[in-house]
């Protein structure tokens, strides 16, 4: 009875899926993104420090609980309202901007930064209901839409290979092959796990990605049990100084343990209200603008790229009813800011669940339920090593490159924006910056070809908005107003 009810509600037959496939897809997505339960408190914890009556450890636990609640709420909305297999949580990059740039760099109280997140979320809700966000995404140039998937694929590849210790940072070349690969058990085990996963996938084994993660995890724990240790150097996440990326043990992940005080998040809930006091209007507006701009185009890019893999896009490259997942994102951001975390976004790791066959909100429901379950248990992020879960990102990255066949490479008006979109995403560690490169270049190249009358006026406006954003973001104007 329950199976039939779920099948009818989520439309399994219409989407060519079934309950087992959706559950496997949900587990896969959760395993690849559950690291956020550990990483988000790690990042925000350096900025949210002065919580009355709480130790730094207890604040970290509170932030983990808030992260879980926010991810669950946003993803449940995605499941039941949008009926899409996309998972949401506080976004990486956005949380780093919140902590390191706004709070630590600009000296803005964390309560005020949370107020900016809430304002951004409310703006998103209003714009989504009015249809403005959907309109903006629809006027993305066609080559940019078709390039987003491949760009995200390369972005995922860098994230995955870095966590697997196959690549490392280098002061001269920025990225290099792990110079101690043969001495690093994480690197060796990760590569073995990756090829096992590819073999399972090539053999069309259902659940191949999740089996690859499990096998790699078991090998990792077995190696750790006999005393293997990871090389600790050169594996910091680019621009994000957090300990999770410099593991001293083989499993390499920091476990989050909970105490009773850690469950009491009342000091964070509603803290944004205090943030509105003594706010400089212009400086606050610039912070909201930056949060808004990055999250808008990160979410738009992720939804478009993952939808391309799932076959959701129409012939014009648009996602039908995109306003529904956008509203889930907007509500998640608003709720997150109200209870104490940074901006919520749709996760590119959703592509792993889609690749496993997830096509409906049932996949998102499974992810949300696993987040809720992790409130009562030690988070699964602490049980599954980062290098094991991120094997899935490399597998999906390879598969997402097939999307470049949709691009008209013999037409420079398509090749230039598409190429820049694909290249800039991984090299700047930003989906939004990749989209910006494509959107700015498109009208310029079209005009140079004498096809200026084919350019939508809104595309010029978008290009101008991105130029303005980069000026605000990089000129020091924000610092000058605070």
Automatic annotation (TrEMBL):
Q: Could you tell me the superkingdom of the organism this chain comes from?
A: Archaea
> Which InterPro entries has this protein been placed in?
Azg-like, Azg-like_bact_archaea, NCS2
The GO terms this record gives for MF are:
purine nucleobase transmembrane transporter activity
Quick check: keyword Transmembrane in the entry? yes
Topological relation to the membrane, as annotated: Multi-pass membrane protein
Q: Which UniProt keywords apply?
A: Cell membrane, Membrane, Transmembrane, Transmembrane helix, Transport
Question: What subcellular locations does the record give?
Answer: Cell membrane
- The transmembrane residues are 21-39, 59-82, 89-107, 113-132, 144-165, 185-202, 209-230, 281-297, 362-382, 388-405, 417-445, 457-478
Q: Got a GO cellular component term for this one?
A: plasma membrane
User: According to its UniProt record, which protein family does this protein belong to?
Assistant: Belongs to the nucleobase:cation symporter-2 (NCS2) (TC 2.A.40) family. Azg-like subfamily.
In its UniProt entry, what is this protein called?
A: NCS2 family permease
This chain's source organism reads: Halapricum hydrolyticum
């Amino acid at each position: 009875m329950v199976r039939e009810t779920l099948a009818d509600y989520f439309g399994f037959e219409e989407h060519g899926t079934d309950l087992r496939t959706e559950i496997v897809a949900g587990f896969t997505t959760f395993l690849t993104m559950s690291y956020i339960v550990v990483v988000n408190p790690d990042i925000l914890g350096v900025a949210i420090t002065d919580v009355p009556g709480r130790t730094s450890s207890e604040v970290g636990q509170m932030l983990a609980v808030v992260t879980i609640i926010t991810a669950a709420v946003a993803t449940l909305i995605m499941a039941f309202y949008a009926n899409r297999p996309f998972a949401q949580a506080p976004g990486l990059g956005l949380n780093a901007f919140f902590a390191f740039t706004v709070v630590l760099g600009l000296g803005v109280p964390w309560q005020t930064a949370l107020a900016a997140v809430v304002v951004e979320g409310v703006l998103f809700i209003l714009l989504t209901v009015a249809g403005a966000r959907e309109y903006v995404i629809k006027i993305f140039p066609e080559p940019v839409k078709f390039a987003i998937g491949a760009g995200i694929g390369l972005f995922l590849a860098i994230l995955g290979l870095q966590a697997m210790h196959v690549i490392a940072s280098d002061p001269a070349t920025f990225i290099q092959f792990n110079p101690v690969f043969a001495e690093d058990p994480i690197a060796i085990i990760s590569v073995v796990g990756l090829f096992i996963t590819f073999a399972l996938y090539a053999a069309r084994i259902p659940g191949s990605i999740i089996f690859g993660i499990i096998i790699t995890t078991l090998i990792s724990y077995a190696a750790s049990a006999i005393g293997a240790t990871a090389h600790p150097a050169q594996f910091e996440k680019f621009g994000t100084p957090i300990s999770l990326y410099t593991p001293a043990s083989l499993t390499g992940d920091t476990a989050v343990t909970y105490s009773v005080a850690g469950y009491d998040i009342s000091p964070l809930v509603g803290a944004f209200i205090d943030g509105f006091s003594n706010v400089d209007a212009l400086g606050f507006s610039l912070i909201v603008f930056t949060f808004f701009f990055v999250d808008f185009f990160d979410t738009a890019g992720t939804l478009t790229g993952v939808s391309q893999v799932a076959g959701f896009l129409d012939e014009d490259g648009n996602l039908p009813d995109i306003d529904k997942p956008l509203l889930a994102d907007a509500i998640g951001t608003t709720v997150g800011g109200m209870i104490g975390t940074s901006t919520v976004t749709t996760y590119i790791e959703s592509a792993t669940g889609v690749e496993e066959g997830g096509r409906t909100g049932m996949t998102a429901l499974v992810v949300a339920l696993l987040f809720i379950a992790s409130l009562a248990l030690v988070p699964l992020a602490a049980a599954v090593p980062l290098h094991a879960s991120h094997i899935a990102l490399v597998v999906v990255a390879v598969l997402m490159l097939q999307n470049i066949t949709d691009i008209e490479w013999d037409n420079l008006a398509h090749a230039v924006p598409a190429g820049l979109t694909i290249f800039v995403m991984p090299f700047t560690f930003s989906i939004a910056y990749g989209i910006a490169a494509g959107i700015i270049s498109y009208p310029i190249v079209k005009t140079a070809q004498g096809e200026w009358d084919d350019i939508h006026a809104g595309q010029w406006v978008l290009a101008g908005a991105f130029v303005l954003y980069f000026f605000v973001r990089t000129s020091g104007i924000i610092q000058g107003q605070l």
